[in-house]
Protein: CRISPR-associated endoribonuclease Cas2
Organism: Exiguobacterium indicum
Amino acid sequence: MKVIAVYDMDAKRGREVRKICSRYLNPVQRSVFEGELTERQYKELRDALRKYIREEDQLVFYIVRNPKWLRRDYLGIPVIDFWW
C-alpha cells in the first residue's frame, strides 16, 4: 500500500520522528514522507512513532491501497518519483 506521512510538532521530537520515518519511507519535504509499505511495516512504523506524539502534535497518514487513485501534482522543484 502507498503511505504518505505528514507531521507537525516540536522540533526536538520532530527530529526523532524524521529518523523513524526515514527507516520506512522516503523523504519528500522536511515533515513529509512517502513510500510503499506492507501492513506489517505500517504497524511497525505507527508503533515506533506512538511514543513521540503528544497531545499538541499532529501526525497524519494517508493510505492508498490502489495506486490508480493517487495522482501527485506539484509546483516548483519536482520531487523525485519514488513510486512509479
